[in-house]
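input
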Amino acid sequence: MSALDDVIPGEPMSVSATLYTSYARCPQQALGRARGIYGPPSRVAFRGSLAHKVFARHLEDGEIEPEMFEQACREMAGGHLGEQMASLHLKPSEFRSLVAEVRSMYERFKALPTQGFTAAEEPFEIDGGTGVTIRGRIDAVFSERGGSRIVDWKTGSFLGDAEPQLEFYAMAWMMVHDEIPVAIEASSLATGENVRRVPTQASVDRTTQEVSDMITALRRAMDSGSDLNRLAGPYCSWCPLLDDCEEGASALDLL
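output
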Protein backbone atom coordinates (compact mmCIF):
# COMPACT_ATOMS: atom_id res chain seq x y z
CA MET A 1 0.00 0.00 0.00
CA SER A 2 1.26 3.46 -0.83
CA ALA A 3 2.08 6.11 1.73
CA LEU A 4 -0.37 8.85 2.65
CA ASP A 5 -1.60 10.99 -0.22
CA ASP A 6 -2.41 14.69 -0.55
CA VAL A 7 -0.52 15.70 2.62
CA ILE A 8 1.02 19.16 2.60
CA PRO A 9 4.70 19.31 3.60
CA GLY A 10 5.67 20.58 7.03
CA GLU A 11 7.61 19.92 10.17
CA PRO A 12 8.17 16.23 11.05
CA MET A 13 5.06 14.77 12.64
CA SER A 14 4.42 11.54 14.53
CA VAL A 15 0.90 10.22 13.97
CA SER A 16 -0.64 7.67 16.31
CA ALA A 17 -4.04 6.15 16.94
CA THR A 18 -4.32 8.45 19.96
CA LEU A 19 -3.84 11.55 17.82
CA TYR A 20 -6.36 10.27 15.27
CA THR A 21 -9.02 9.46 17.88
CA SER A 22 -8.39 12.83 19.57
CA TYR A 23 -8.98 14.58 16.25
CA ALA A 24 -12.19 12.62 15.67
CA ARG A 25 -13.68 13.74 19.00
CA CYS A 26 -12.17 17.27 19.11
CA PRO A 27 -9.82 18.71 16.46
CA GLN A 28 -8.57 21.38 18.87
CA GLN A 29 -7.57 18.71 21.42
CA ALA A 30 -5.57 16.94 18.70
CA LEU A 31 -3.93 20.23 17.75
CA GLY A 32 -2.89 20.64 21.39
CA ARG A 33 -1.23 17.23 21.26
CA ALA A 34 0.50 18.10 17.99
CA ARG A 35 1.82 21.25 19.69
CA GLY A 36 3.17 19.16 22.56
CA ILE A 37 0.48 19.99 25.12
CA TYR A 38 -0.25 16.93 27.26
CA GLY A 39 -2.05 16.45 30.52
CA PRO A 40 -0.19 15.60 33.75
CA PRO A 41 0.57 11.95 34.55
CA SER A 42 -2.38 10.21 36.13
CA ARG A 43 -2.99 7.17 38.28
CA VAL A 44 -5.61 5.91 35.81
CA ALA A 45 -3.17 6.05 32.89
CA PHE A 46 -0.48 4.26 34.89
CA ARG A 47 -2.94 1.58 35.98
CA GLY A 48 -3.89 1.02 32.34
CA SER A 49 -0.27 0.78 31.25
CA LEU A 50 0.53 -1.71 33.99
CA ALA A 51 -2.54 -3.81 33.19
CA HIS A 52 -1.49 -4.02 29.54
CA LYS A 53 1.97 -5.25 30.59
CA VAL A 54 0.28 -7.91 32.73
CA PHE A 55 -1.94 -9.02 29.83
CA ALA A 56 1.03 -9.22 27.45
CA ARG A 57 3.06 -11.26 29.96
CA HIS A 58 0.15 -13.68 30.39
CA LEU A 59 -0.17 -14.18 26.64
CA GLU A 60 3.56 -14.66 26.11
CA ASP A 61 4.60 -16.57 29.27
CA GLY A 62 1.41 -18.02 30.76
CA GLU A 63 -0.63 -17.33 33.87
CA ILE A 64 0.91 -15.31 36.69
CA GLU A 65 0.53 -17.19 39.96
CA PRO A 66 -1.53 -15.31 42.59
CA GLU A 67 1.26 -15.31 45.18
CA MET A 68 3.67 -13.83 42.59
CA PHE A 69 1.29 -11.23 41.18
CA GLU A 70 2.35 -8.18 43.22
CA GLN A 71 6.04 -8.93 42.73
CA ALA A 72 5.47 -9.38 38.99
CA CYS A 73 3.73 -5.99 38.88
CA ARG A 74 6.65 -4.37 40.69
CA GLU A 75 9.09 -5.86 38.20
CA MET A 76 7.06 -4.73 35.20
CA ALA A 77 6.53 -1.25 36.64
CA GLY A 78 10.21 -0.84 37.38
CA GLY A 79 11.39 -2.33 34.10
CA HIS A 80 8.97 -0.67 31.68
CA LEU A 81 7.07 2.10 33.47
CA GLY A 82 9.63 3.46 35.91
CA GLU A 83 9.51 7.07 34.72
CA GLN A 84 5.72 7.10 34.66
CA MET A 85 5.52 5.61 38.16
CA ALA A 86 8.14 7.98 39.56
CA SER A 87 6.23 11.00 38.30
CA LEU A 88 3.19 9.95 40.35
CA HIS A 89 5.15 9.65 43.63
CA LEU A 90 3.08 6.64 44.68
CA LYS A 91 3.24 5.58 48.30
CA PRO A 92 3.61 1.82 49.00
CA SER A 93 -0.04 1.62 50.11
CA GLU A 94 -1.16 3.41 46.93
CA PHE A 95 0.83 1.04 44.76
CA ARG A 96 -0.70 -1.99 46.52
CA SER A 97 -4.17 -0.54 45.98
CA LEU A 98 -3.41 -0.04 42.32
CA VAL A 99 -2.10 -3.61 42.02
CA ALA A 100 -5.36 -4.86 43.54
CA GLU A 101 -7.30 -3.08 40.80
CA VAL A 102 -5.06 -4.55 38.11
CA ARG A 103 -5.47 -8.00 39.70
CA SER A 104 -9.25 -7.65 39.42
CA MET A 105 -8.98 -6.84 35.71
CA TYR A 106 -6.53 -9.70 35.25
CA GLU A 107 -9.03 -12.18 36.68
CA ARG A 108 -11.52 -11.08 34.03
CA PHE A 109 -8.83 -11.16 31.37
CA LYS A 110 -7.97 -14.79 32.15
CA ALA A 111 -11.51 -15.80 31.22
CA LEU A 112 -11.12 -14.50 27.66
CA PRO A 113 -10.31 -16.98 24.87
CA THR A 114 -6.72 -16.78 23.63
CA GLN A 115 -6.69 -19.40 20.88
CA GLY A 116 -4.65 -18.35 17.89
CA PHE A 117 -2.49 -15.85 19.79
CA THR A 118 0.50 -14.77 17.71
CA ALA A 119 1.85 -11.48 19.16
CA ALA A 120 1.45 -9.05 22.07
CA GLU A 121 2.24 -5.33 22.05
CA GLU A 122 3.12 -5.50 18.36
CA PRO A 123 4.90 -2.24 17.39
CA PHE A 124 4.73 -0.54 14.01
CA GLU A 125 6.58 2.43 12.53
CA ILE A 126 5.76 3.48 8.99
CA ASP A 127 7.19 6.20 6.80
CA GLY A 128 4.08 7.99 5.57
CA GLY A 129 6.04 10.43 3.40
CA THR A 130 6.33 14.25 3.65
CA GLY A 131 7.92 13.99 7.10
CA VAL A 132 5.12 11.88 8.62
CA THR A 133 5.80 8.81 10.72
CA ILE A 134 2.90 6.54 11.59
CA ARG A 135 3.67 4.64 14.76
CA GLY A 136 1.99 2.74 17.52
CA ARG A 137 1.58 -0.56 19.29
CA ILE A 138 -1.18 -3.13 18.86
CA ASP A 139 -2.18 -4.85 22.10
CA ALA A 140 -2.61 -8.34 20.63
CA VAL A 141 -2.79 -10.17 17.33
CA PHE A 142 -4.57 -13.48 16.87
CA SER A 143 -4.59 -15.83 13.92
CA GLU A 144 -8.11 -16.40 12.64
CA ARG A 145 -9.43 -18.21 9.63
CA GLY A 146 -8.48 -16.12 6.63
CA GLY A 147 -5.96 -13.84 8.31
CA SER A 148 -5.22 -11.84 11.46
CA ARG A 149 -7.51 -10.42 14.13
CA ILE A 150 -6.39 -7.27 15.96
CA VAL A 151 -7.51 -6.79 19.58
CA ASP A 152 -7.24 -3.73 21.79
CA TRP A 153 -7.76 -4.18 25.54
CA LYS A 154 -9.61 -1.36 27.32
CA THR A 155 -9.11 -0.99 31.07
CA GLY A 156 -11.86 1.63 31.37
CA SER A 157 -15.53 1.45 30.56
CA PHE A 158 -15.53 4.05 27.74
CA LEU A 159 -15.60 2.51 24.26
CA GLY A 160 -16.94 5.57 22.48
CA ASP A 161 -13.73 6.14 20.53
CA ALA A 162 -12.87 2.49 19.95
CA GLU A 163 -13.96 2.41 16.31
CA PRO A 164 -11.62 5.12 14.93
CA GLN A 165 -8.74 3.63 16.90
CA LEU A 166 -9.40 0.18 15.47
CA GLU A 167 -9.75 1.55 11.95
CA PHE A 168 -6.37 3.27 12.37
CA TYR A 169 -4.82 -0.06 13.35
CA ALA A 170 -6.39 -1.73 10.31
CA MET A 171 -4.85 0.95 8.09
CA ALA A 172 -1.43 0.50 9.72
CA TRP A 173 -1.66 -3.30 9.43
CA MET A 174 -2.44 -2.95 5.72
CA MET A 175 0.55 -0.64 5.24
CA VAL A 176 2.93 -3.04 6.98
CA HIS A 177 1.61 -6.43 5.87
CA ASP A 178 -0.19 -5.58 2.61
CA GLU A 179 -3.32 -7.32 3.86
CA ILE A 180 -6.46 -6.24 5.66
CA PRO A 181 -7.14 -7.80 9.08
CA VAL A 182 -10.12 -10.15 9.08
CA ALA A 183 -11.41 -8.42 12.22
CA ILE A 184 -10.62 -5.52 14.54
CA GLU A 185 -11.87 -5.71 18.10
CA ALA A 186 -11.91 -3.71 21.35
CA SER A 187 -12.74 -5.38 24.65
CA SER A 188 -13.40 -3.62 27.97
CA LEU A 189 -12.02 -5.42 31.01
CA ALA A 190 -14.13 -3.14 33.19
CA THR A 191 -17.56 -3.96 31.74
CA GLY A 192 -17.10 -6.94 29.43
CA GLU A 193 -18.38 -4.86 26.51
CA ASN A 194 -16.94 -5.73 23.12
CA VAL A 195 -16.76 -3.83 19.83
CA ARG A 196 -15.95 -5.86 16.72
CA ARG A 197 -15.71 -4.64 13.15
CA VAL A 198 -14.75 -6.26 9.85
CA PRO A 199 -12.59 -3.80 7.90
CA THR A 200 -12.76 -3.60 4.11
CA GLN A 201 -10.64 -2.02 1.43
CA ALA A 202 -13.14 0.83 1.32
CA SER A 203 -12.90 1.45 5.09
CA VAL A 204 -9.09 1.33 5.01
CA ASP A 205 -9.01 3.78 2.10
CA ARG A 206 -11.43 6.07 3.94
CA THR A 207 -9.30 6.03 7.08
CA THR A 208 -6.16 6.72 5.07
CA GLN A 209 -7.83 9.76 3.51
CA GLU A 210 -9.08 10.97 6.90
CA VAL A 211 -5.59 10.66 8.39
CA SER A 212 -4.17 12.61 5.44
CA ASP A 213 -6.80 15.33 5.85
CA MET A 214 -6.08 15.50 9.59
CA ILE A 215 -2.34 15.98 9.05
CA THR A 216 -2.97 18.75 6.54
CA ALA A 217 -5.39 20.52 8.90
CA LEU A 218 -2.99 20.26 11.84
CA ARG A 219 -0.02 21.51 9.83
CA ARG A 220 -1.96 24.46 8.47
CA ALA A 221 -3.14 25.41 11.96
CA MET A 222 0.38 25.13 13.37
CA ASP A 223 1.86 27.18 10.52
CA SER A 224 -0.74 29.94 10.90
CA GLY A 225 -1.08 29.83 14.70
CA SER A 226 -4.83 29.39 14.33
CA ASP A 227 -7.20 27.10 16.22
CA LEU A 228 -9.47 24.29 15.04
CA ASN A 229 -13.03 23.33 15.93
CA ARG A 230 -13.77 22.46 19.54
CA LEU A 231 -16.22 19.61 20.12
CA ALA A 232 -17.28 19.01 23.71
CA GLY A 233 -18.08 15.69 25.35
CA PRO A 234 -17.29 13.45 28.35
CA TYR A 235 -13.67 13.22 27.24
CA CYS A 236 -13.23 16.92 28.13
CA SER A 237 -12.65 15.96 31.76
CA TRP A 238 -9.08 14.83 30.99
CA CYS A 239 -8.26 17.39 28.29
CA PRO A 240 -5.19 19.56 29.07
CA LEU A 241 -6.87 22.47 27.24
CA LEU A 242 -9.92 22.50 29.52
CA ASP A 243 -8.93 25.58 31.54
CA ASP A 244 -9.14 27.75 28.42
CA CYS A 245 -12.11 26.03 26.75
CA GLU A 246 -15.61 27.39 27.36
CA GLU A 247 -17.20 24.58 25.33
CA GLY A 248 -15.56 21.88 27.43
CA ALA A 249 -16.32 23.56 30.73
CA SER A 250 -19.98 24.01 29.78
CA ALA A 251 -20.26 20.36 28.70
CA LEU A 252 -18.83 19.12 31.99
CA ASP A 253 -21.26 21.35 33.91
CA LEU A 254 -24.15 19.70 32.06
CA LEU A 255 -22.74 16.21 32.57
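quick obs: The chain has a mean pLDDT of 90.
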